[in-house]
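Need the bound structure for iron/sulfur cluster, inputs here:
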Amino acid sequence: MLSILLARFQQKYRTMAWPAGPAPALPARLAGRPRLDRTACQQCGTCAAACPVGAITCQEGLTLDTGRCLFCRACERACSRQAIQFTQEYRLGAAAREALLVRDAAAAYPPALVEKARAYFGRSLKLRQVSAGGCNACEADTNVLSTVAWDLGRFGIQFVASPRHADGLFITGPVSANMRLALEKTYAAVPDPKIVIACGACAIAGGPYAGHPEVHDGASAVVPVDLFIPGCPPHPLTILDALLRFVGQVPEE
Amino acid sequence: MNFLQIANSTATDLARIPELVFDDFAAELTAAIAAGARLSALFGTPRSAGGAELYAVLAAEAESALFLGRTTVGASYPALTPACPQAHLFERDLAESCGLTPVGHPWCKPLRFLDAARRDPTPGTPPCGVMDFFQIAGDAIHEVAVGPVHAGIIEPGHFRFQCHGETVYHLEISLGYQHRGMERALRGGPTPRSIHYAETLAGDTTIGHTSAYCTICETLSRQRVPARAQALRGIAQELERLANHIGDLGALAGDVGFLPTQAYCGRIRGDALNMTALLCGNRFGRGLLRPGGCTADLSAADVAELARRLTQLRRDCTSAIELLFHSPSVLSRFEETGTLSRETCETIGLVGPAARACGVARDVRHDFPYGIFRFAQLPVCTWESGDVFARAYVRWLEIQKSLAFVAEQLPALPGGATASATAAAPLAANQLAIALVEGWRGEICHAALTDADGRFACYKIYDPSFHNWFGLACALRNQEISDFPLCNKSFNLSYCGHDL
Ligand code: SF4
Ligand code: SF4
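Answer from helper R.:
Posting the output first, comments after.
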């Protein structure tokens, strides 16, 4: 008993102050939201050729789809004119799929608020997570939110065991053909009104596996999606920020 | 032995691999395994004339030697599994991916349900998970089916228990839900996507699998990796082991309701992931390793910061984990739960901490050293009891060794570049390259065959989970079904690494 108390004392109070206080320190080399410089771009196509997943088009003006992007920085390295640069901006989640397209250097991050979500689930959101064919890193960094450092419970958000107890689904993975049926059944088991969150490049557009005949290129192929959280995997802060803005617990700027 | 002896992380000209007639191949393989070798890989490439060419990689740890052999079989051939249980899953894979029939295989069921795993499967194809499960008959027997969707944030898989009251007589595990076509997509490569497949074979083992993939490319293009990059890879690999082992001990604590260690380790695991993020920006090490070296370097300030965090990590996890092993209530739940004998472990060919917890000193870093581990030896940690306690305690021993390794490497980083200065040559044609790496779950084996143009004609991946899932099934025999979560967590295997 004494040793438990002693350890408790050593380990201290660790729940972060954010969103009321400062955000936790992000790694200096983090690849967050990219900034594009269309005036520097010569439409040479080098970045698009370097991208493993076809997230960039430059013929009709340089555009980067953060929904497809793996944040691998191959494009940034490939461009000799620094037209693509990844910033520390962690706010990537968006309610509309089109809002994930980055076209310029605008500082604004995409809006994630969904009125239906705020009205119904603003103070309590129970989610059933379904893994459907990804690599399990999105799951790992979602699980982190339930640790003491992040303490997701303080926002009334919780991952629950049964779809019957849930307000919506939190999907990771591109939806493998082998998981399609289970995902459909789980979705059907969630009572209305319900919402769906697609977390990670896989769940948004297939991620590294986009175009494979074994997968469905994202959750939207099977269920309607209300919130998209880019990243491979998204940083836990990106996930938490998206959830909080989605239900209106953190105001959009 | 007519198999060809090779070293880890090498490529072999196909013409040099002895081609045996099947009976000799089977006899040699079975005899070598009976003498203590282990099957690291067994795969086939279909032949246009029907049947397939089979390749086997045997790991003889006692002699630190790997052996390669090959043979040709027709569309059906006498199964190896009856004489050699280690071949069980390998032959199910052969049946599924090469269309072979291993005659006499006692358990030849789908492994990953490849026929169903299409956007547009042939009508009438049974969906993933529908197969002939082993059943026990009897009035008092009941069956429990769990999954594919489980209760927490975890990957999908199906578990079928045959129970008598609380006691589990048999557990059958049916996977394949995470199948996303990795080996098929790697064929014809390398392409710009190949490295991303390696990074996402099992997300929590990004460094382990990407090391193996890079090694394959480097041996095939005879690219030298600078010493500094080797050291950084070693540090990244041990940080990956630390994060996962610490997380696992926290989760094990949670499964027996010991909340202090669960809470502390959950957080401390994040600190370890953040150390990897200091290296490359990503908590899982995405983007750090590329054939030829590493994309990032550590400045003197980074090294100092990592060393500072390492000291803190050691302090925090020591206090959290010692608490766990000093609690009688925890020990009484861990001890003699989910016990595997050393004999079972050797028969089915377990790898990693699960094998070391059965007293088997098996560790790729020691047996077939690669990269930095050729110069810096890490002691192999074992425990004898084979139960949940042993699997937990071996992790704790390994955490201490990895902490010491990183602490030793940081101030001694070799100078120079972190990536090879010369551009990679094309991959050599008609080779078989083998790369073994000790991931945090155990032996990762990648095997790549190149065609006449130096493209991957076949790329095989064996995550440690491939070997160990059957170990979990065996550990459950005669256990109470309520101990399943604890036993499962003590193995903590990968679904996506198995399903590919
Ligand atoms: S960072 Fe994104 S857009 Fe750029 S190359 Fe990688 S995946 Fe493509
Ligand atoms: S988006 Fe990336 S990290 Fe997430 S499951 Fe897919 S491959 Fe893994």
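Comments: The longest helix of chain A spans residues 177-189. Chain A has two domains: 34-89, 115-246.
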